[in-house]
Design a protein that fits this description.
Elements (H helix, E strand, L loop, with lengths): L1 H25 L2 E12 L3 E12 L5 E2 L3 E7 L2 E8 L4 E2 L3 E12 H7 L8 E14 L3 E14 L5 E12 L3 E12 L5 E12 L2 E6 L5 E3 L3 E12 H4 L1 H8 L4 E12 L5 E13 L4
Antiparallel strand pairs: 1-2, 2-7, 3-6, 4-5, 4-8, 8-9, 10-11, 11-15, 12-13, 12-14, 12-16, 16-17
Length: 280
């Protein structure tokens, strides 16, 4: 009898272990496959977190609550939650895209050095609840590490002023501006309007047509054609312009910046000064 009872116990344990193994095999698996930039401004970035969920069963399963936390240096700066139920098709992988908005002010408060960078590293930590038949609610962990851009305003400086044509009545020149784009993506700069001063005297206004593309992580040059009359410049300043004498040049300008994923700034302004002489 004792031997029979031991055999029954061994058989029951084997059945239970087999059931547990089968129940584990029924559980879906979830992971974050990637993140994408859905929208970006100079104030915030919205990341799309793509969650892949594999349902190994022959039947559909609904999802429950989805929680995501975005961390920088182990501290939370943004979160997203969704209680919308998604049907997980049997024997297929289902994708769920969850937007997470990150205010740059929160990032800079946490990591002050991030102000000078063009991207930041982050971690995603979260979970997806799935109500399973026979098992009950289970929680699928979600983890991911990635990086996201921090848009930087271009840096403008005066490179040189090249004289193209000089007469007694007027002067034609080419003003060259260096525009440094430290972002990892190109920017379009258009709707430029500029006022040019020499030694504090207003000389000319310029509004070049068209849009210039500022290549990523490069210093780009913009050539601005100028037509300055002797009358506007004054005789003394005009002589300085055509001589090798160094004078202070000042450019006050505005323009419109545009980039990918909705990045836009209508009133990009700059004010630059440089002490240099005109070249021929």
């Amino acid at each position: 009898m004792r031997i029979i009872l031991q055999g029954v116990a061994v058989l029951a344990f084997a059945l239970l272990a087999g059931c547990a193994t089968q129940l584990d095999a029924m559980k879906p698996t979830a992971s974050v496959s990637k993140t994408t930039v859905q929208n970006i401004s100079f104030d915030s970035v919205t990341l799309g977190v793509l969650v892949d969920v594999m349902n190994p069963n022959h039947f559909n399963i609904p999802t429950g609550k989805l929680d995501l936390n975005l961390l920088v240096d182990g501290k939370q700066i943004a979160q997203a939650m969704s209680e919308e139920s998604v049907s997980l098709t049997g024997k297929e992988s289902t994708q769920m895209m969850v937007p997470v908005k990150v205010p740059y002010s929160s990032l800079f408060d946490l990591v002050q050095s991030a102000r000078d960078g063009n991207e930041f590293l982050f971690d995603v930590a979260g979970s997806l609840a799935v109500p399973m038949p026979l098992i009950g609610d289970i929680s699928l962990p979600l983890n991911y590490s990635g990086k996201a851009p921090i848009p930087q305003l271009p840096k403008v400086s005066i490179s040189n002023l090249s004289l193209q044509d000089v007469s007694l009545s007027r002067l034609k020149a080419d003003l060259v501006l260096n525009v440094e784009n430290n972002n990892k993506f190109p920017l379009d700069l258009g709707a430029l309007k500029m006022d040019l001063k020499a030694d504090g005297k207003q000389l000319v206004s310029a509004a070049p047509t068209g849009t210039s593309t500022l290549k990523a992580e490069q210093t780009n040059q913009l050539h601005i054609p100028l037509d300055i009359s002797t009358k506007d410049a004054g005789f003394a300043l005009f002589n300085s312009l055509v001589s090798s004498k160094k004078i202070e040049w000042q450019v006050d300008g505005t323009g419109k910046l545009e980039g990918d994923n909705g990045l836009s700034l209508d009133n990009f302004g700059f004010n630059v000064k440089e002490l240099l002489s005109a070249i021929r």
